[in-house]
Amino acid sequence: MELLFRNVRELIELAEKENKRISDIMIEQEMAMTGKSKEEIFSKMEENLKVMEAAVERGLQGVKSVTGLTGGDSVLLQKYIEKGNTLSVELMLDAVSKAMATNEVNAAMGIICATPTAGSAGVVPGTLFAVKSKLNPTREQMVRYLFTAGAFGFVVANNASISGAAGGCQAEVGSASGMAAAAIVEMAGGTPNQCAEAFAITLKNMLGLVCDPVAGLVEVPCVKRNAMGASNALVAADMALAGISSRIPCDEVIGAMFRIGQVMHPNLKETGRGGLAATPTGEAIAAKIFGA
Amino acid sequence: MVHLRKLYQVGVFMKFTSVFDIIGPIMVGPSSSHTAGASRIGQIARDLFGKEPKWAKIHLYGSFAETYRGHGTDVAIVGGLLYFDTNDTRIIDAFKHAKEANLEFEIIPETANKEHPNTARIVLGDDETEMSIEAISIGGGKIELSEVNGFNLRLKGGMPAILVVHDDRAGCVANVANILAMHNVNIGHMEVSRIDRGSTALMVIEVDDNIDGKILQQISLIPNITKVSTINS
User: Fold this and answer.
1) What is the DSSP string of B55-107?
2) Strand, helix or coil for residue A115
3) B 84-113 near A (Cβ less than 8 A)
4) Of B19, B72, B117, the CB nearest to A154
């Protein structure tokens, strides 16, 4: 019943002291809190993985949302990658495409796994299924990826927020991107501390990001914000693996995100009243959909 | 005071206690609060009513009222009334399924402001009885029940809770508490309200952890207990 960690510092210290991975600590905490066996917890997470896989697959076949605002961009990007003339490395664009695919399925009322929310559900699976081609992980390592991501999300949810209505998009896609960066580092063989550095670097680059969905819907700009989050996660993971550290410790970055969220204007926190939602085009789209 | 640190450790002060609160739920998109949460509000209404409703009036407030069509909040609640879970794709065609199930419903967007932006009020019934609930969706698919038949409930958002509908008789509360104590389940907060004076009452028990199905079954076997369900577990 006891929490093993309440912040990133405790999480890293524990992992280092016991010579374990972040994913191990998350699994152990879940076992302690629920009394369930490791196998039960592992197989429940594998169900989530299956849903993520299916969502990416479905998105890449091309979907359209109820409003028609989003869908199909992930397919365009895959076709572009196939031509072989991309400026960014293919793995990066593959992650972007698969992140968008997930959120396009979400917007089309398809089945997704909230990671940590539905609106930010693309980043973690998008990066996972892209780095998969480079790192050739086992199925177990893929499930572990989700526990590592979950450990960091758990800290953010309890010490700051993972809700756009409470903290803006920095709390949703920002958190999701940091979670993905940390998970990539562990899968690539980095240390627990490098996971934390990757998380901190990612979130630092997304501080202040507002939640300004057009017509209040989880479509514009959410789908493309997941794209940006996936690329940000990959860059930060590489930086951390290169030995670069964040001058501001991870927990303090999370604290900063929380305080920024508190002073963020309500118009910029999932109300659909400010930012892109309040542009002439954003308002015209809202009027067309709702007949206002 | 002695227990303060302990309380913190067991998660009383932590809104999120499981990794599956972060990675999950598996759900029909597009919004964990406006779709998955809405479905759960419908399910809890259906659960508390205890039988198939023949009609339902669904009042939506705040952000629910503004954006329900784009988020599928309307179909999600109706789906919930039909017991479709958050990951059940029948949610998308819930209106059609409601027709087949002879459930008449009305979606009523309200302009009045409620304390929380994602509030829904459902009045449901059949030929004999009717009841009303009010609930809010607090994010990530978690919900909070704020009112049952006019009784205000003050629950902390997002914690797992056991809902027990029982006859309004002496001893019921003690019997339920005994079973929980026997299983070492710590009660965080508890409220009892009468749905109909002298006939039906509702016990809402907030607990620290998810509740084992076996415990729920034991509670349901206590005399004068008519219905046991859970929320956020």
Assistant:
1) EEEEEEEHHHHHHHHHHTHHHHHHHHHTT--TT-GGGGGHHHHHHHTT-EEEE
2) coil
3) 87, 89, 91-92
4) B19
Indicate whether A83 belongs to any domain: yes
- B-interface mutation test, from A27, A100, A158, most B Cβ less than 10 A away: A158
Question: Of the candidates A108, A113, A119, which has its C-beta nearest B31's C-beta?
Answer: A119
- Chain B residues near residue A151 by CB distance under 8 angstroms: 19
On the question of pLDDT at B10 being above 60, the answer is no
Helix/strand/coil (H/E/C) assignment for every residue in B172-217: HHHHHHHHHHHCCCCEEEEEEEEEECCCEEEEEEEECCCCCHHHHH
* pLDDT per 10-residue tile (average), chain A, 292 residues: 88 98 97 92 98 98 94 98 96 98 97 96 98 98 98 96 90 98 98 98 98 93 98 98 98 98 93 93 91 62
Name the segment(s) of chain B with CATH classification 3.30.70.260.
Answer: 159-233
pLDDT tens sequence across A19-57? 999 999 999 999 998 889 999 999 999 999 999 999 999
State pTM to two decimals: 0.87
One of 3.40.1050.10, 1.10.150.20, 3.40.228.10, 3.30.1330.90 is the CATH number of B25-152, namely 3.30.1330.90
**Residue A256, domain CATH:** 1.10.4100
Size of interface A-B (CB pairs under 8 A): 165
CATH 3.30.70.260 assigned to B159-233: yes
User: Is A251 inside any structural domain?
Assistant: yes
